[in-house]
Amino acid sequence: MENKNLLEIKDLKVSFFTSAGEVKAVDGISYSLEKGRVMGIVGESGSGKSVEAYSIMGLLQSPGKVVGGSIIFDGKDVLAMGEKEKQTMRGSEISMIFQNPMTCLNPVYTIGNQLVEAVLCHEKIPRKEAERRAKEMLELVGINNVEKRMTQYPHEFSGGMRQRVMIAMGLICNPKLLIADEPTTALDVTIQAQILELMKQLQQKINMSIIFITHNLGVVAEICDWVSVMYAGHIIESGSVNDIFYNPKHPYTHGLLRSMPRVDAESHERLIPIEGTPVDMLDPPEGCPFGPRCEHCMKICLREAPPNIRVEGGHTAACWLLARDCGKEGGRNE
């Protein structure tokens, strides 16, 4: 039987070995992504979202190191690949839109040169063919007058247009997986909506899988099928978009939702922030990483890490509140 999963991550652990000590940036996360699906990864800054993405791409740099677990992409073990294999995979099979695409374009090369180079790095085709494909991709992402745009430099493009160029560069080799690392952070809401609509259309057109990394739950609701909520290097809740928005089970997920403005809220409804500060990753708590900030914290939360409890279907959450009530609510240990 054909495996439906394009990406399978099992017990992935990534650490940064610094002079101050070991920082466990990703501490034992597991999930799978089906072909043609869009998964959102949300959480505060420093929760390990980008580190996980760089691990999948094989772009971790010293002092970062994968210290455990496995990454299986399309049946291939990414961590066992040599550097040449990773270079072949990057761009052609897995592409990434980086966290600050505004500065990722080379200022001394034209837009056309950079798009054509992305094609020629992975495919042995004539330059004329690569140029034709680059123009088609620019049109596909909504850029007009492509003949002129191909000869222009990044500084001649607006922020939204540079964002579209980065998406075009990520998609030009028709990858099976696109990792979008907060690609709309620096854009105003109008351009953000256009970019999200564009990505949805392209995803459906070429049946590509997407990992969408963001701290914006509104963006998640717009584009994703599945959501994983990260905190302090752990996935603390995972489920469908409906599960996370309408039936959240982890106190951290509740906190994220309460701190987000709602269109249907009362006119003077106050946003409730999450109290406390993020975990010191050099000295994380022994138990639940969210325990010191949690309004429902119990003694066991500070002593032991909670088990991952299945609520229903694929909806899971790691919280002692669920473990305590699992008999009543029908949950069970994963």
From TrEMBL:
* Residue ranges of every copy of the ABC transporter domain listed in the record: 7-257
What is the membrane topology here? Peripheral membrane protein
Q: Which PROSITE patterns match?
A: ABC_TRANSPORTER_1 (PS00211), ABC_TRANSPORTER_2 (PS50893)
> What Gene Ontology cellular component terms go with this record?
plasma membrane
Record carries keyword Transmembrane:
no
Q: Give the organism, scientific name.
A: Papillibacter cinnamivorans DSM 12816
Q: Which SMART domains match?
A: AAA
Q: Which family does it belong to?
A: Belongs to the ABC transporter superfamily.
Its localization reads:
Cell membrane
**What GO terms are given for molecular function?**
ATP binding; ATP hydrolysis activity
Could you tell me the superkingdom of the organism this chain comes from?
A: Bacteria
Enumerate the Gene Ontology biological process terms.
peptide transport
Under what name is this protein listed? Oligopeptide transport system ATP-binding protein
Which UniProt key words apply to this protein? ATP-binding, Cell membrane, Membrane, Nucleotide-binding, Transport
